[in-house]
Amino acid sequence: MMELNTTLLENGFAVLSNQLTLDDCYQLSQLFDAPDLYRKTIIMQKHGYGSGEYKYFNYPLPPLVNTLRHELFTQLAPIADEWNEKLGLPLRYPTDLDQWLEICHKAGQNRPTPLILRYVAGDWNALHQDMYGELYFPFQAVVFLSQPDDDYIGGEFVMVEQRPRMQSKAIVLQPQQGQIVVFTTKYRPAKSTRGYYRAVMRHGVSEVRSGTRINLGLIFHDAA
Ligand SMILES: O=C(O)CCC(=O)C(=O)O
Ligand SMILES: [Fe+2]
């Protein structure tokens, strides 16, 4: 397994395994219908976002969501610094998520962004970026809580990388239950003959053909 920073730098994403058990996945997916955990529910078709339903967690986050968010952030912060350096961006990130969130909150971005999404047959998620204000962290993560083929068919995770003055590249993943995809929030440094340029990335989900697909989204900047 290649180092996380090499994989992220070369591809703009990485797939992590063995971060949570199948029981963790089950427990987390059960949270979708729990009352009182959420600050906002979005019916995607009402906003032109695609089709499906998602909910933003409220603080305090469920313990496992909070732990995953902290642990991943600590691993990713030094890589985020490296990216910003390559792209000539001045911002550097503390390795402690709480310190970064304090910076977000002081800038008026104080609403939690971790979310849980549920798609049934016919649902999909339009290609998008998750920006919620000026401040953002260059990586985010999606935790796959359902098992393809057993729980649902279709519903591939799709990323599109825009290449300046060239046609875009699509990346399609079908991760196993319990895997985590870490990917570029906004743009990644891509090497050219004249140094690094900003390759804009967007992500979405192809149509679920049958069954139910539930995922957990971990976004590290809070929302205005
Ligand atoms: O359902 C998915 O796999 C994608 C969710 C998503 O767009 C996100 O967590 O930001
Ligand atoms: Fe998203």
Question: What is the compact description of this entry?
Answer:
The protein has 224 residues and is an alpha+beta fold. The protein is 25% helix and 37% strand.
Number of helices: 5
At the fourth CATH level, what is the homologous superfamily? Answer: q2cbj1_9rhob like domain
Determine the N-to-C terminus distance. 37 Å
N-to-C SSE series? HEHEHEEHHEEEEEEEEEE
Strand content: 35-45%
Extract low-pLDDT stretches: none
CATH architecture: Sandwich
Residues in helices, as a percent range: 25-40%
Total number of domains: 1
CATH classification class:
Mainly Beta
What is the CA-atom radius of gyration, in angstroms? 17 Å
Give the biggest sheet: 8 strands, antiparallel
Q: Any overview of this molecule?
A:
By secondary structure, the chain is of the alpha+beta class. It has a single domain (4-219), classed as q2cbj1_9rhob like domain (Jelly Rolls, Sandwich). Helix content is 25%, strand content 37%. The chain has helices at 4-11, 22-30, 44-47, 63-87, 97-106, and strands spanning 13-16, 38-43, 50-51, 53-57, 115-120, 124-128, 139-144, 152-154, 157-162, 169-173, 180-184, 187-192, 195-205, 208-219. Strands 1, 2, 4, 5, 7, 8, 11 and 14 form an eight-stranded antiparallel beta sheet that branches. Strands 3, 6, 9, 10, 12 and 13 form a six-stranded antiparallel beta sheet that branches. β9 (157-162) and β10 form a beta hairpin. The model has no long low-confidence stretch (mean pLDDT 96). The structure holds 2-oxoglutaric acid and fe (ii) ion. Fe (ii) ion (FE2) binds next to loops. 2-oxoglutaric acid (AKG) binds next to β13 and β14. Belongs to the iron/ascorbate-dependent oxidoreductase family. This is 2OG-Fe(II) oxygenase. One of its GO terms (molecular function) is metal ion binding. Residues 110-223 form the Fe2OG dioxygenase domain. InterPro entries: DUF2086 (IPR018655), Oxoglu/Fe-dep_dioxygenase_dom (IPR005123).
